[in-house]
Amino acid sequence: MEHLRQSVTDFIRDGERRLSPATILYYRSALAAFLDYCETQGVQLVSGVTRPLIRAYAAQLDGTMAPGGAHARLRALRVFVNWLVREELLSGNPLPHHLFPKVPQPELAVITEGDMAALLTQAATTRRPLRDRAMLLTLFDTGLRASELCGLHLDHLLPDSTLYVRLGKGAKDRRVPISKPTRRALQAYIQKERPDSESTQLFLSRGAQPLTASGLLQHLVDLCAAAGLPHKTPHAFRRGFAVSFIKHGADLVRLRDVLGHTSIAMSARYAVMSSEDLKELHQTASPVQHMAGRKKGGR
Question: Which PANTHER family does the entry mention (predicted)?
């Protein structure tokens, strides 16, 4: 008989070979909460993971957590249960058909071109203006995750105006194009401002030490505050890139490749436009608008 706690350990170990550390940490935390619940119900074996148990667990989460938090824990449980089925540790899938609570979908924060202009103006006044300009442009021009930006090294800026992104989320390497302004900003930072360091990491912090994801996050907090903007996370840059990329003519397949997603559905979640973006796009893409334009041209 398979013990549930050991199966969770095996699932985590299997995931460590292909998932990012942040994703592994998320699974550890969510499944630890599920194990704690199972212990209160006297469930120690995998065979005890039944549909009634999962329904009861979901009901408990619904009564004690916000919908978003409950949804996150149940997503991790779904992945784990599907893994148990694939590994033939469970003979059937006990997941209920309607497992997840409804979560309100707020309009997610994105960086706009106006925000970028304000941030770039502020960056010019900092102690490391060339680094900060290059960093902001790279985030907005590529949609890189914070860990990916901080993981860039000097030799990852390639001659063909691409960045070589090593071991992104899901352990997938990829090459991401950059624009000429971003390339010029990176070269200016490297040639004129980047301090000498034993580290080959592209972006350095105080004391010529490699910039960390937490250091990047704090610096963005400071820049936004100084520019009079609400706090924007690195993921706001990622979403802002996705919206702008689609808005200016790219398709979801290319967006998927640049962002390093495994599915178009995931990329589509990032490219959700605001009502103002949709109105602006409608003015150029509306079929009726095009009909009116052709009639005027024919007169």
Answer: PHAGE INTEGRASE-RELATED, TYROSINE RECOMBINASE XERC
- Phi and psi of 131, rounded to 5°? -65, -45
- Lowest-confidence segment of 114-123, 203-212, 288-297 by average pLDDT: 288-297
Q: Where are the beta strands (DSSP E) in 184-299?
A: none
Looking at CATH, the fold of the domain delimited by 4-86 is given as: DNA polymerase; domain 1 (1.10.150)
- Give the CATH number of domain 113-280; options: 2.60.120.10, 3.20.20.450, 1.10.10.10, 1.10.443.10: 1.10.443.10
Alpha-carbon distance of 33 to 14, in angstroms, equals 20
For the chain, what percent of residues have pLDDT higher than 90?
48
Pair 196, 174: CB distance under 8 Å: no
Q: Are 158 and 206 in contact (CB under 8 A)?
A: no
Are the C-beta atoms of residues 156 and 183 closer than 8 Å to each other?
no
- In the numeric block, which tokens belong to residue 271? 């490219």
pTM: 0.59
For the chain, which residues make up each domain, given as ranges?
Answer: 4-86, 113-280
Q: Would you say the CATH fold of 113-280 matches that of 4-86? A: no
Q: Are 205 and 212 in contact (CB under 8 A)?
A: yes
Sign of CA dihedral 213, 217, 223, 224: positive
Q: pLDDT-derived band of residue 263, with 50, 70 and 90 as boundaries?
A: low
| Count of other CB atoms within 10 angstroms of residue 57 | 22
Q: For residue range 276-298, what is the model confidence (pLDDT) as tens digits?
A: 555 555 455 545 454 455 555 55
Give the SS3 label for residue 299. Answer: coil
